[in-house]
Design a protein that fits this description.
Elements (H helix, E strand, L loop, with lengths): L6 H4 L21 H16 L3 H14 L11 H18 L3 H23 L15 H19 L5 H9 L2 H10 L4 H29 L13 H14 L6 H10 L4 H17 L7 H19 L2 E3 H7 L5 H15 L3 E4 L4 E4 L6 H9 L2 H25 L4 H9 L1
Antiparallel strand pairs: 1-3, 2-3
């Protein structure tokens, strides 16, 4: 994880506002040394704790240096890149989570631009000329960004969804598996909590629609996105030999071995872990509720008739009446195909047909990520072809002839 004492990266802060002016070339007659002075002054303001002032200075620096590509300013691309880290640091320290989320997105793009420069693909972008990151540096910066983004995603209103979207990207998932498998705890917690939130949002929408007009019975609502959950289970299984904690063990016991006794025992350990975790402690009640929903739904998939006292024990609810009220609320909210026999203290589960809409949605959910990966591969191939053409006499025919020979 990137240490807070790294003077070059932590010191460069940028504006607390989310937006930035359109890049313009360096003004005619501007002294190149003035840019370095402005950059150093922004760092000085950051070191003094004046994050807003540092942000304003770095915003001006980045706008003025956007077109600086002369030989005298070869370090501008590098400083513009580290200014992105400065912006993220200042936004986090000012607790401007919306601006910090924008800074994370910008820094992701900056890393890819620098990687494009290193690969010779010509995708360095405006203001990044002359600066590149080799594969090891790319891995290091992505590792830093993963850790810094924890402050953003666990405070942003939509942060859990942004976290899963970013971390399940192929490059960042490979970074996690290679360099920091310990953050799987946060990925698992985000998937568990956000999945339950999505179901609660759908429940609220359905209730509002039912209040306006009578609605026919809706199909069963899944607990969470099965695509994300499947990816999470796969990654947890792959990394179980190198890293595991109560949260990842809970996923493995519940969705791999279907050992409900072990899942219940590990859930108690999860409560102790979350209570002491800086990022997850505020989500403890929500996590426990979502975990109980997961246990109940998985248990219902493998049992058609469930005794209320037994499910109360599985859910760590000592009073069966509390478990019955909780299950009734869950069945009504999610419109599960289930009935409760109060006399026999049993829950009878139905077997509904899968929804065509859900089947299509789940099968196409990963299309965007796969398309982006294919596009990046094609772009790298295009850069190699351009290099081959340049190596000849500059004509595509020569390159094709060389390939055919």
């Amino acid at each position: 994880e990137k240490e807070g004492g790294d003077g070059e990266d932590d010191g460069e802060a940028e504006s607390g506002s989310g937006a930035e002016k359109a890049p313009e070339p360096l003004a005619e007659g501007a002294v190149p040394g003035a840019l370095d002075t402005l950059y150093d002054y922004a760092k000085f303001q950051f070191d003094c704790g004046n994050y807003a002032a540092a942000g304003e200075c770095l915003a001006a620096y980045r706008v003025m240096s956007a077109g600086a590509v002369s030989a005298a300013l070869l370090n501008v691309g590098e400083r513009r890149f580290f200014a992105m880290w400065g912006r993220l640091a200042s936004e986090i320290l000012m607790r401007n989570w919306v601006g910090a989320a924008a800074a994370v997105r910008e820094l992701r793009e900056g890393i890819e631009m620098a990687a494009g420069n290193a690969g010779g693909g010509g995708k360095g972008g405006v203001g990044m000329a002359g600066f590149s990151l080799n594969p090891l540096q790319q891995l290091q910066h992505r590792t830093w960004l993963i850790h810094w983004s924890l402050f953003v995603f666990f405070n942003h209103p939509e942060g859990l969804g942004l976290l899963s979207s970013m971390w399940f990207n192929d490059r960042y998932l490979n970074t996690i598996q290679t360099n920091c498998p310990h953050v799987l705890r946060y990925l698992a917690a985000a998937i568990i909590i956000s999945g339950n939130r999505g179901k609660q949002a759908l429940t609220s929408t359905s209730a509002a629609a039912a209040g306006a007009a009578a609605q026919p019975a809706a199909p069963v609502v899944p607990a969470m996105s099965s695509a994300l959950l499947d990816d999470l289970v796969r990654v947890v299984q792959q990394e179980s030999s190198s890293y595991h904690d109560p949260i990842t063990e809970f996923i493995q016991h519940l969705y791999v071995s279907f050992n409900f006794d072990s899942a219940q025992a590990v859930l108690k350990k999860c409560e102790a872990v979350l209570a002491q975790d800086f990022f997850l402690a505020p989500y403890l009640p929500e996590f426990l509720d979502a975990a109980r929903v997961m246990i109940f739904e998985v248990y219902c998939r493998v049992h058609h008739c469930i005794d209320l006292p037994k499910i109360a024990e599985r859910l760590d609810m000592p009073v069966a009446a509390d478990a019955e009220r909780w299950i009734v609320d869950l069945i009504r909210g999610a419109r599960l195909n289930a009935k409760i026999d109060s006399q026999k203290a049993q829950v009878h589960m139905g077997t509904p047909a899968p929804s065509v809409y859900e089947t299509i949605a789940e099968s196409t959910r990963g299309a965007i990520i796969r398309t982006a990966a294919i596009s990046a591969t094609l772009d790298r191939g295009g850069g190699a072809l351009a290099a081959a053409v340049t190596a000849g006499d500059g004509t595509p025919q020569d390159a094709a002839a060389g390939t055919g020979g």
